[in-house]
TrEMBL record:
It comes from Rhipidura dahli. Residues 1-28 are annotated as: Disordered. This is HEBP2 protein. Residues 17-28 have a biased composition (Acidic residues). InterPro entries: Reg_factor_effector_dom_sf, SOUL_heme-bd. One of its GO terms (molecular function) is heme binding. Pfam families: SOUL. Belongs to the HEBP family.
């Protein structure tokens, strides 16, 4: 009996040590990720608060390509020239999105702060108390003047709700996040890489406008930046979307 109780004590002590070690590694990972995001944030003049540590860790752990759900669309046309893809014409169906309006001094600040708020919503800060899952791309609606020569400060950062949540989206705890239903839309999409700021976005808008056969069919002052990698990534995969007039 003495041997059994000693054995049991050893195993329970051993398991508690393992748990402590796992917790310590967990905390270290959280600190490392938070520190990385804070350094990236400083580059965009954005303060990443300590309460983002858990959502950042949760999102990082679940950010495997096989875990992500791509927003469904129907490909209508691919326009190529000498083997290079110029743009795609796509149809996106009616769907619900979690949206937040931002109006920081710089575009990068708006998307970073908006994305952090959406991360909290995705990572259990919602009425279901569950991790909702990543969908890609995260999109940002931007506006320009009629001449397409400058962007306005107001943007909307939006997260497509996974298919299983489309009928009954969990309610956000953050009152700034609004669930909106967007109508079915025809989109002209062109891919580009790198950072997204006022200059790069205006360049991509002008580039796609020059390539399209009939740019007048699209809205002239409203565009979407679709991001397939998080704002902390250095070499991002992005798309510029022109929206066909209803």
């Amino acid at each position: 009996l003495a041997e059994e109780s000693a054995d049991s004590a050893y195993h329970s002590h051993g398991s508690s040590l393992e748990e402590e070690a796992a917790e310590r590694m967990d905390d270290e990972e959280q600190e490392r990720l938070l520190s990385y995001w804070q350094s990236v944030g400083r580059g965009h003049q954005v303060d990443v608060p300590r309460d983002m540590a858990e959502p950042i860790q949760q999102l990082t752990r679940n950010n495997n390509p096989q875990e992500r759900q791509t927003i469904p669309f129907t490909l209508i046309q691919r326009k190529e020239k000498l083997g290079d893809l110029l743009y795609e014409k796509r149809h996106y169906g009616k769907a619900k999105w979690a949206c937040i309006k931002m109006k920081e001094k710089q575009y990068e600040q708006s998307i970073c702060l908006g994305f952090m708020k959406l991360m909290r919503y995705i990572c259990e800060q919602n009425s279901s108390g569950l991790y909702l899952g990543i969908t890609v791309p995260i999109v940002t609606i931007v506006h320009t003047n009629e001449a397409q020569s400058a962007m306005t400060q107001a943007v909307t950062v939006a997260y497509y709700l996974p298919e299983v949540l489309q009928d009954q989206p969990p309610h956000p705890f953050d009152s700034d996040i609004i669930i909106e239903e967007w109508p079915a839309t025809i989109v002209y999409s062109r891919s580009f890489r790198g950072i997204t700021n006022e200059d790069s976005i205006m360049r991509e808008i002008n580039l796609l406008a020059a390539i399209l056969e009939s740019p007048e069919l699209c809205l002239r002052d409203t565009f979407i930046i679709a991001g397939y990698t998080n704002p902390a990534a250095a070499n991002r995969h992005n798309e510029i979307w022109f929206l066909q007039r209803p």
